[in-house]
Amino acid sequence: MVNPVLLIVTPLGLAFIIPLLASVWTRSAKYIPVVGMLFNLIVSLLLLRHALDKPVVVTIGGFPPPFCINLVAGPLGLMLSLLIALVGFAVSIYALGYIRKGATARYHALYLLLLAGATGAVLTGDLFNLFVFYEILCISSYALVAYLGDRDGIEAAVKYLIQGSVGSGLVLIGIAILYGLFGTLNMADIAQHISSVEPLHLFVPLVFLITGFGVEAAVFPLNAWLPDAHASAPSSISAILSGIAIKVGVYAVARVVFTLFDASGLFLFLVLLGLLTLLVAEMSAFSQSNIKRMLAYSSIGQIGLIVFAFGLASPSGISGGLFQLTSHALAKALLFLAAGYMIYRAGSMEISALEGMGKKMPITCFAFTIGVFSLVGMPPFIGFPSKLLIIKAALAQQSVWFTVLIALALAGTVIETVYFFRVVQALYFKEPTVNGQTQQPTGSVHEAPFSAMAPIYGLLILILLLGIYPNLLTGALDSAATELLERAAYITGVLG
Amino acid sequence: MLDTLREIAQLGLVALLLVGAVCACMFKDLLNAVIAAAFVSLIATVLFFLLHAPDVAMAEASIGAAITTAIFVIAIKKTTRSEEE
Amino acid sequence: MRAVIAICLLAVIVPVLAISLAEIPFGAQGAATPEKPWIHYISQGAEETGAANIVTSVVVTYRGFDTLGEVTVLFIAAIGLGAVLFSRQQRKGEKLEGASLILQTGCRFLFPLILLFGAYVFIHGHLTPGGGFQGGVIVASGFLLAYLGCADINARKRWLNATESLAGAAFVIAGLIGLALGGDFLMNFLPKGTFNRLFSAGLIPLVYAAIGFKVGAELAGIVANLLEKPE
Amino acid sequence: MSALYENSYYIASVGLIAVGLYVMVVKKNLIKVLIGLSLFETGINLLFIAVGYLAGGTAPIFSTHSLLPGRMVDPVPQAVVLTAIVIGVAVLALALSLTIRLYEHYGTLNLRKVRDLKW
User: Fold this and answer.
1) Does B40 fall in a domain?
2) What is the per-residue pLDDT for C123?
3) Which fold has domain D2-52+72-118?
4) Which pLDDT value is given to residue A432?
5) What's this model's pTM, rounded to 2 decimal places?
6) Touch criterion met for B and C (3+ Cβ pairs within 8 Å)
7) Is C174 on the interface with B (CB under 8 A)?
8) What is the largest CA-CA distance in chain C?
9) What is the extent of the structural domain holding B70?
């Protein structure tokens, strides 16, 4: 059996040698992320088979768990690392042709490090180690948002950096208080002793940790940075930020709430927070005229739905939340990737500039439309079974309140449908308006190149396949939900 | 007697630390504010040493007081020195 | 207006912190139960790792994975800074206003001494306070002095980049050897030697030297990139 | 007086965290905000070390053989804070490079003005 540590160390090692390699042979740098993510994809798949029976717990440094850092490659961690490798692989192929300007070798190194940080954060079993990998993820995203170096990008990166740093600081305060209370940083060890301390004293570190990780997860009052950052980053990075980075924030919040603290009093709060996030974000998305900002607000809304599902805290609710997480990662990555070349072709991010694109780039626009259908939850795409699971889980609570709440969440989804269909209508049923702004850069390029088509259609096939056969996924998702809900099994799995 | 002196010295260090932090907040000239922040790092180094953390004290002295200040000063030199209202 | 918000925020955060710190009496960490990891580190760490400085044994061995993440963060900052400032880097090397002869001579005299001191600090990391980070930063401050004082000691950025990459790869490979030998990542596979000698503690001095080179090269690169003048 | 003395490290660290957060929320100048960030981080580091302190302990280094392991302070917060300090300087270096670029684009470091200029 392969050691899960390779999932983290291989991308790190490859990223370290990119600058050296680029100084010898510049063009080689862009293939390194492809290789690294392909490796991760294969290893995650191999490990997932073992992990479904029993979580793979490995130590680092050669001592038993509470004394050194350990990795917990359970179904949840491996499912997320598989998702990271999958989306990362698709986007790294896309970037082969898309990234032309600037310090390209540095872009590829930062990109690989971002994914390594995300993988590390979902696999580690140590609280401070989680913080370190979370910081790797955040810092490389700050740099990548500013990669284009234009006015908006720099401003967005500054905003993101300041808010993200306050969040990380709060996480560190929470870790310091937990260390003072328990004298250990191992998550299983803390979880084991959590009931020995009065709940009142646990409340403070819990709030600090949730607020800190919530900044990256973009839950409602903490998401001011997200629309700017996602809109002004290069499209490949927007896809990764929307598809992967915020999911890691959600994972960290879920890990803290479910495994670390067993904070059952917080579940209703999570439901309401998720609903508020969903409604506010969909309302803001409705009034956007910039397509990337619209996609970014829609990401916040989907995060709200995922948090809502996690807050239900039933096996089917969490399983539905994880399914929604997967479907959103695939669909949103597809939308950003397709939008990247549509924007490149139109020369503007305004939706009005994209009118009539359906005739100019039919293949790209078709993929974009499928992504929209999946995102709003139409059968037979992956968005349908995931939303259906969440609705079923909410109704299974047998309470009038939850029925009202899920009805409100569905109202948010309806708003989403309306504004997304407005875009689709603009793509297909409007003639291109002749105004001075719509320029035609490089007239010969009609469709996106093959390096962009391959990942876009790869994602499309996955969306269709998993939409028709959701059972391919539900087994793994159910055991991931069980891992999150059954703390005792997690603790004994690590500490023996 | 010695204990009292020690207590007074420690409280004095804490007071200096907080005064330095407030100065870093108040100064309108950014260069002065950066030097005040470096002073805070220096006092923090002493506090780390008193807490029996020599490794951290060394790191704080070399990173907090030296390198951080240097890159701040370079950035101020490249931008502007006064905190405009 | 913002001041009012900030004071309200602090009026919540400070009492909340005070309440939870009241639960952690200052200076009473020893009251913890014996199976805590840190009790294990100070009672058995010296024996298990062979390092006299327990902080070093925690940093490099017990929590070595954090340290790998930490040098990665610094690496990200170094290349991220290069990417952000990229379009400005058209001109090679920088010429600050020429320093006076006394300063130049002084720098030229001090520069190797500072490098030597930095190297001393990171090689003796397992015996005395200090280690890869502190030593690396001292090396970087030597480069800072050289950049400011005498423009002609101008370390080629290529060499800094190569050092950075190789030292990082060395850290990862040192970890992977432990894995390949059938143990864990970052496991010590070298003899521990005599306690309190320079050549002891197995892998620790080697890893710390790699960290020292990496941190020194990264911070020197950061300073060099920041000092460069725009077009 | 003695309560003040016993908790002086906590007071120092919470005070630094408070001043740092205040600067980050109130000040408009980006470099001032970053100074606030560095004060905030120093405060957190001090808090972490103070949490791991053992009254009457020694530094966790066996510099002579006469030292007893039972009277050493906790090494884990020290290792962790070492990491946190380095992460702090990395964030700061990246932030300052962004500052330089922001100034090139907008000609000001005032974050409110930058927001006005953008639209």
Assistant:
1) yes
2) 86
3) Helix Hairpins (1.10.287)
4) 65
5) 0.94
6) yes
7) no
8) 64
9) 2-78
C5-33 mean pLDDT: 80
Q: What is the pLDDT of residues A422-439, one digit of tens each?
A: 899 888 887 765 554 444
In a domain, B83, yes or no: no
A372-377 long-range contacts, CB within 8 A, separation 24+: A372/A335, A372/A420, A372/A421, A372/A423, A372/A424, A374/A327, A374/A330, A374/A331, A374/A334, A374/A463, A374/A467, A375/A298, A375/A302, A375/A328, A375/A331, A375/A332, A375/A335, A375/A416, A375/A420, A376/A413, A376/A416, A376/A417, A376/A420, A377/A413
State residue A278's pLDDT score. Answer: 93
Half-sphere exposure of A373 (CA within 13 A, CB side): 15
In a domain, B84, yes or no: no
Instruction: Count other Cβ atoms within 10 Å, centred on residue D2.
Output: 7
Q: How far A290 CA sits from the closest chain D CA (Å)? A: 14
So what's the ipTM on this one?
0.93
Residue B85 lies in a domain: no
List of chain A residues whose C-beta atoms are within 8 Å of the C-beta of residue D103: none
Question: With contacts defined as CB-CB under 8 Å, which chain B residues touch D1?
Answer: 7
Tell me the nearest-neighbour CA distance from D105 into chain A, angstroms.
6
For A317-369, what is each residue's pLDDT tens digit?
999 999 999 999 999 999 999 999 888 888 888 888 888 888 888 888 999 99
Nearest by CB: B66 against C55, C141, C227: C141
Q: Please say if the pLDDT value at position C143 is more than 70.
A: yes
Query: How many domains would you assign to chain B?
Result: 1
DSSP B82: B
3-state secondary structure of A40: helix
